[in-house]
Amino acid sequence: MKMWKSLILGLSLLGLTTSSLAALQPLDKVVTIVNDSVILQSDVDAMLKTVHLNAARQGQSLPDDSILINQVLEKLIMETLQLQQADQFGIRIDDNRLDSAIAQLAAERNLSVAQLQQELAGAGISYAIFREQIRRDLTASEARTIMVRRRINILPQEVDNLATQLNQQQQEGVQYNVSHILIRLDEGATQADRQAAERKANDLVGQLNKGANFTSLAYSASNGPKALQGGAWGWMSPEEMPTIFADQIHAQGKGAIIGPFRSGVGYHILKINDVKGLETISVTEVNARHILLKTSVILSDDGAKKELEQVRKDIQSGQRSFADAAQALSADPGSAVNGGELGWQTPDIYVPEFKAQIETLPKGTISEPFKTVHGWHIVEVLDRRQVDRTDAAVKNRAYRILFSRKFNEEAQAWLQELRAGAYIEEPGYDDEQG
């Protein structure tokens, strides 16, 4: 091993000219060996500077470098192991993606990229070294994601169970603004008294359903505890309101008139004035149909476009139907058998060019020919509809929560296994560097 390290240092010296040897600076030394890679003192120094810069931005005090250095070295070791995995997968972060990540990082700090460069220079950090560190971070993260995803298994029952819990929690956060009218029955009321009270309650509900003002009726007719407030109970969660109220308002929405319903004290009428904390998610679905032509050595881009232009004219003139043309010509076998119909879908599932067409086309209009990665298309929007996707959104959220939990657990396990299986020569052999 000593001979191997000496060879590394010897090869480093081969790049020096005679004149540069005259002004030789202290040689960057190997601090740790990780499998077939090395961590240099300059790597440690650069990361220490970054740690100090981040702490300064957050107003956070740090211990001495002698204490930090072990944490920095451990981070570099784990990063190196992940980079070795990335190299096996052929993962590369190109300059465009790197520049985008740095721009986003600068924006999160409320800085331009130029201002970020100035801040780095002020901390003694080379921008070139900083760029490569970000590239390393992104590369290591992608390798980690690829490897850990393979270890995660989420069962449908797990998603359903968590979605049920999330729905219950959502209901717990719901509040209702409720008003109340009570037609009271005194203790010992006769059958006639009960029938009269019921008729009065039904009459009030009839007036309310025709648009009568609930507050005015509560002032004039209610015997309830909030009669002098126009029957208003204000905002309450189901847990805070009387049980008889909570049992009735279940699954009722804003503006609902509920009742009359009877309790031991009389007949009750409720109005839900407003609801908050109950989120619903609605999405637009589009039913569209298309014809796809794929280019080949026989059919050029220009040829495909012209053919679709002619097909479009024939359909518009009534010479042929869209369905017949799709069945005869479309290179999308899944939709061609259905006359080109794609069924009800959200636009987000389609590639950007196709998505843009079906989001903007008026219903019943056939588009001009356009190109996507799949080929040349014409498309017609048959209909649009709003669909409640609250349940689907809750299940998606449940899946993301489960994935995040398992990813963090599995990532830690994977990193431990990676480190346990690696050859790592720890620091503490400076005497061998000469």
TrEMBL record:
The record's section on InterPro entries has: OMP_Chaperone_SurA (IPR050280), PPIase_dom_sf (IPR046357), PPIase_PpiC (IPR000297), PPIase_PpiC_CS (IPR023058), PPIase_SurA (IPR023034), SurA_N (IPR015391), Trigger_fact/SurA_dom_sf (IPR027304)
Q: What does the record give as EC number?
A: 5.2.1.8
Q: Where is the signal peptide?
A: 1-22
Keywords (A to Z) from UniProt: Chaperone, Isomerase, Periplasm, Repeat, Rotamase, Signal
The record's subcellular location field reads:
Periplasm
Q: Name one Pfam family in it.
A: SurA_N
| Enzymatic reactions | [protein]-peptidylproline (omega=180) = [protein]-peptidylproline (omega=0)
- PpiC domain residues are 173-274, 283-383
- Give the source's domain of life in one word: Bacteria
Show the SUPFAM superfamilies listed in the entry: FKBP-like (SSF54534), Triger factor/SurA peptide-binding domain-like (SSF109998)
GO molecular function term, any single one: unfolded protein binding
**HAMAP family cross-referenced by the UniProt entry:** Chaperone_SurA
Protein's UniProt name = Chaperone SurA
User: What is the species of this protein?
Assistant: Photobacterium galatheae
